[in-house]
Amino acid sequence: MTQHDRLLIIDFGSQVTQLIARRLRELNVYCEIHPFNRVDDAFLKDFAPKAVIFSGGPASVFAEGAPMPPESVFDLGVPILGICYGQQVMMHCLGGKVERGHGTAEFGRAFVTHTGAPLDLLDGWFDPETHGGREQVWMSHGDHVSAIAPGFAVYGTSPNAPFAITADPVRHFYAVQFHPEVHHTPRGAQLYANFVRLAGFTGDWTMGAYRDEAVRAIRAQVGDRQVICGLSGGVDSSVAAVLIHEAIGDQLTCVFVDHGLLRLGEADQVVSMFRDHYNIPLIHADESDLFLGKLDGVSDPETKRKIIGGLFIDVFQKYADQIDGAEFLAQGTLYPDVIESVSFSGGPSVTIKSHHNVGGLPEKMGLKLVEPLRELFKDEVRALGRELGLPDSFIGRHPFPGPGLAIRCPGEITREKLDILRKADAVYIDQIRKHGLYDEIWQAFAAILPMRTVGVMGDGRTYDFALALRAVTSVDGMTADYYPFTHDFLGETATRIINEVQGVNRVFYDCTSKPPGTIELE
Ligand code: XMP
Fold first, then answer.
1. b/e string for 354-387 if b means 16 or more Cβ within 10 A?
2. Are strands 226-231 and 326-330 parallel, antiparallel or unpaired?
3. Which atom of ligand 1 is nearest to the CA of 520?
4. Are residues 34 and 159 in the same domain?
5. Which end of the chain has fewer surrounding CB within 10 Å, N or C?
6. Nearest alpha carbon to residue 509 among 461, 449, 452
7. Nearest CA to ligand 1 atom 3
8. Both ends of the chain: CA-CA distance in Å?
9. Which ligand 1 atom is the nearest neighbour of the CA of 480?
10. What is the pLDDT of residues 105-159, one digit of tens each?
């Protein structure tokens, strides 16, 4: 789809490769991540990158079949930046030397000092006035470079990495031992900014430009045919729907499956925003009786997820079948979902939870996919949503899982419990908003516990449900930390919930991080 200057990140399996892409996207540079074993001569020719970055990775260049880039990458005549394992690969390929760890492995914070020679990559670094002439970086390596390749010189050293920053300024090849993309290299973003500037990127990757291109691409793909879109009320499917509607108007019909497991007032909000405000044809499939009926008496978390996932597909298909001539299914797939990751373990990963999605649906229904967000990270989807005029309060909403309140109601699900949970969750979120904390928190919600406890209210005994409150900070939901509310906040919130929501007489706060916990309770 894109006509922009492109930067290629060759992935050697680092845990933080996606962070490199994010740093570049923040600089309005379009980049893609591709695993080293997919990048060959033909790929490079076709991709025509304006610059290349080699990511870090867990391998050793000494290992048999060690991951390597195609040699032709060095003949493209474009700047290359190698990071950590990427540095070792560059030296190994170009005639330098790499040595095994032997006491020089380095993990964690280190300080790099400048060797004195000027280098365009280092503009703004090593300012003696403001940084005492050295820079904090994050190291994470076993092997290390022991002799640099011909044409290279050393520009920065650390106590355990004599070749912390190396470069061949004539060919514009740069190689660093540390990770400039991580938070613990506080001024790493400056290195990326320097790198893309010297490579000639103009920062033309903006959401306004993306919107126009995406609209053109959707029109070209769909022509005069019909598209259906499953709307969940979440940010991704909403932004996809509004964008596609801008491109093809009434050729888009949205199907909103209401499984009866949504939050207070949520179904009405979605329907009124899309149908009334955006004028998008919308089918509100109220199937709560069906879902809650099938979930009756079920308490096993995986069984719940499977029931909801299966029913969702059946219901979606039933409504989609009623739309004449639908040939396309729109999905809010994001870039992190399409990046092929490099797996060195080779083994299958364990299923922690069966995530709810509509995968498999397009083949079953014979539909082609329209995925206009495939190139975007989550924060870019939010920027695009703002560009399309979606309200901030909607775009900034915390994530909400596909199976909805079912997984916030451990044990059996009843309408009574769901009702209590909805009210309590609304009070909790209201408290968070009132205290100005909503945007600091990645996700917050209440869960109703499968137990009743004894309490006393007025002069009477109560025997009501207990509630757990959860709030976490996170970047991508893969790891998370619990949010450190003040005791005052927690006390005030517990009091409000118990006073305002009948059926709750006790409130707990969940202080578990992920791992070992997960964000949702099931
Ligand atoms: P866990 O509980 O696995 O959740 O730590 C991580 C993030 O994923 C969300 N989540 C889901 N999202 N379908 C979704 O679309 C699902 O089945 C699902 N399960 C969990 C969860 O809310 C959190 O943001």
1. eebebeebeeebebeebebbbbbbbebbbbbbbe
2. parallel
3. 2
4. yes
5. N
6. 449
7. 518
8. 39
9. 5
10. 778 899 999 998 899 999 999 988 877 789 999 998 888 899 999 999 999 999 8
Ligand 1 cavity residues, CB under 6 Å:
353, 355-356, 399, 401-403, 443, 477, 514, 518-520
**One domain for residues 165 and 65:** yes
Structural domain for 134, as ranges:
6-198
Beta pairing partners, 369: 329
Set 179, 259, 284, 356: catalytic member:
179
How far away, in angstroms, is 518 Cα from ligand 1 center?
9
71 CA distance to ligand 1 centroid (A)? 41
Place of tokens 């914070």: 109
Task: Please indicate, yes or no, whether residues 362 and 424 belong to a single structural domain of this protein.
Answer: no
Active site residue 84: yes
From the list 93, 141, 172, 181, the catalytic residue is 181
H/E stretch holding 23: helix 17-26
In this structure, are residues 497 and 424 in contact, taking their beta carbons and an 8 Å threshold? yes
Structure-token pair, residue 299: 């308490």
Mean pLDDT of the chain: 92
Ligand 1 mean position, distance from CA 252 (Å):
28
Residue 32 annotated in active site: no
Q: Which of 236, 313, 353 to mutate to test the pocket of ligand 1 (most atoms within 8 A of CB)?
A: 353
- Quick: pLDDT tens for 50-79: 999 999 998 899 988 899 999 999 999 999
pLDDT digits (tens, 9 = 90+) for 226-254: 999 999 888 999 999 999 999 999 999 99
Beta-carbon contacts of residue 12 (< 8 Å; ≥ 6 apart): 36, 54, 55, 56, 57, 59, 67, 85, 86, 89, 342
Same domain flag for 348 and 248: yes
CATH number at residue 44: 3.40.50.880
What's the half-sphere exposure (Cβ side, CA atoms, 13 Å) at 453?
15
Instruction: Report if pTM > 0.85.
Output: no
